[in-house]
Amino acid sequence: MKLHTYHRSSASYRVRIALNLKGLQAEAAYVHLTRNGGEQFAPAFDALNPQHLVPVIEDDGMALPQSLAIIEYLEETRPAAPLLPSDARGRARVRALSQAIASDIHPINNLRVLKYLSEELKASPDQKNAWYRHWVALGLAGLERQLAGDPATGLFCHGDTPTMADCCLVPQLYNARRFECDLSGYPTLAVIDARCAELAAFRDALPETQPDAG
């Protein structure tokens, strides 16, 4: 199994956490998203993923992009240490929380969007950061209300063991801190994030601990 990854990619970060929680090893293939115009556009990677996005996982002759699809694939093929609940309602809730981050918050403030704002629309650094903070605040506020008001929230986003939702939450909060977002209004998210930080599976997936972070 091989994971094409970039240390600062939130989506790659999610998959690294999931692999760690499941106790799985994957050979790392590093794709630098800014060096030489972006290694994701090189012919070899283009053949793996024409969307030019990381992560991509190669396993058993298949190249699979999209972080949530990868995590669900791992869940189905390596079911030990499950990242989805055993009941249909719980699985639906975890998927909804995960998609709220991966589909609604992250895509509008990832690298290629911010680059387009700067290079094509000529947004200033302050304007770009204001864009980022606006959409992150809107998304996290809704997520905070969802988690704080639901008895299904436990020590983690769902119950008392980490799930796919926590794999998504932690990288999003990490990036929010990079952009100096004010996170004081999300106490439930902060408590869950701190609890995740106590686990080696999350710490070992941190961007700064990756070999390509130099």
Sequence-ordered SSE layout with sheet pairings:
Layout: E1 2-5, H1 10-21, E2 27-30, H2 43-48, E3 56-59, E4 62-65, H3 67-77, H4 88-105, H5 111-119, H6 125-148, H7 164-178, H8 187-197, H9 200-203
Parallel strand pairs: 1-2
Antiparallel strand pairs: 1-3, 3-4
Helix pairs in contact: 1-3, 1-7, 4-6, 4-7, 7-8
How is this structure best described in words?
- The protein is an alpha+beta fold and 214 residues long.
- The protein folds into 2 domains: 2-81 and 208-213, 3-Layer(aba) Sandwich (Glutaredoxin); 88-201, Glutathione S-transferase Yfyf (Class Pi), Chain A, domain 2, CATH 1.20.1050.
- 51% of the residues lie in helices and 7% in strands.
- It has 9 helices and 4 strands.
- The chain has helices at residues 10-21, 43-48, 67-77, 88-105, 111-119, 125-148, 164-178, 187-197, 200-203; strands spanning 2-5, 27-30, 56-59, 62-65.
- α1 (10-21) crosses α7 (164-178), α4 (88-105) runs antiparallel to α6 and α7 packs across α8 (187-197).
- The model has no long low-confidence stretch (mean pLDDT 96).
Strand content: 5-15%
Strand runs, count: 4
- Strands ordered across the widest β-sheet: 2-1-3-4
The string of secondary-structure elements, in order, is EHEHEEHHHHHHH
Helices, by number, come to 9
Largest sheet: 4 strands, mixed
Q: What proportion of the residues is helical, as a percent range?
A: 40-55%
Q: Provide the gyration radius in Å.
A: 17 Å
Shape: globular
| Cα-to-Cα separation, first versus last residue | 24 Å
* Highest-level CATH class of the largest domain: Mainly Alpha
Architecture per CATH nomenclature, i.e. the level-2 architecture of the largest domain: Up-down Bundle
Low-confidence stretches: none
Structural class: alpha+beta
CATH topology grouping of the largest domain: Glutathione S-transferase Yfyf (Class Pi), Chain A, domain 2
Mean pLDDT: 96
* Number of structurally distinct domains: 2
